[in-house]
Amino acid sequence: MSLTIIKPGILDTIQDLGRTGYGRLGINAGGVMDRYAAQVANMLVGNDTREAVLEIHFPGAQVLFEQNSLITITGGDFGPMINDEPIPLWHPIVVRKNAILHFPKLQYGNRCYLAVHGGFCVNKWLNSYSTHLKAGAGGFKGRKLEKGDEVPYRESCIYFAGLLKPGKELEVMKWKVDTGHTYLHPHEIYIIKGNEWEQLTSQSQEQMLEDNFIIHPFSDRMGYQLKGIDLKRVEDTELVSSGVSFGTIQLLPNGQLIVLMADHQTTGGYPRVGHVISAHLPKLAQLRPSDCIHFQITDLATAENLLIAQQQELNILQRACTERLNNLVC
């Protein structure tokens, strides 16, 4: 079983939840930008949440399914269609052999995720399926997908053809995921104070929390460069390079901010003035260049409670999806 890339998108790569434990060697975790959307995608098709998914940016690829398949698309809305029929996001969908998936129109969001039942059959590099573009490793041949690539996925025990009505190219399953809470107020991003927060002048601290920042067009999977009022430090002292993570907010020498994203470096020497809380990283990942961000300070306890609530929601969702799919098999 496999899918074939008929027309490549701007940046379509195989990703999973990232490769952890290699930061001491200078190898970043990488992985999907929106962990929530990727995990839900795998749940909806009955996969383990650590299975590989296809991360798609707009304009997205055109994909031919070589076999009857159970798929889902989560994350950003690029107006997905199977042949000429629109399909909904956050639903499991059975598609017929030789169906073509394409993404003709950007509605909202910055990236979406395609998961297939069984998971993509690609080799791991350092215990992860994720594509590391700079190292040329992981994913599908260590690179983004190109025209003619055939990406295999594992055989299924489900007879998908029996779920398709005669003459129909697809069948949308009757359950979906409500994601309104996770992506609520998309431009409001909670942060906790970073180690160098106190190095900002009191005026710059106020400005960082009162003003809006615009995502620069040069932003990518490594970091979101922000445009806003110049922020200032009390003293321009040199710092020893320290560990950074997904969501670290650094102050650049020109007074502007950068938010580190999934492909961030493992250490940095710029002041870490804040960190985006983990529960809001999915919202951040779906913001596009020219979108605005408004930061709001919160405390560690609130950040932990929001993350726990999000994980509890995912646990409930996984059990519900498993039950639905088991009934489907029966």
Automatic annotation (TrEMBL):
Keywords: ATP-binding, Hydrolase, Nucleotide-binding. SUPFAM superfamilies: Cyclophilin-like. Residues 24-313 form the Carboxyltransferase domain. InterPro entries: CT_A_B (IPR003778), Cyclophilin-like_dom_sf (IPR029000), PxpC (IPR052708). The keyword Nucleotide-binding applies. Transmembrane segments: none annotated. GO terms for molecular function: ATP binding; hydrolase activity. Gene3D superfamilies: Cyclophilin-like. It comes from the Bacteria. It holds the Pfam family CT_A_B. PANTHER family: 5-OXOPROLINASE SUBUNIT C. This is Carboxyltransferase domain-containing protein. It comes from Niastella vici. The lineage of its organism: Bacteria, Pseudomonadati, Bacteroidota, Chitinophagia, Chitinophagales.
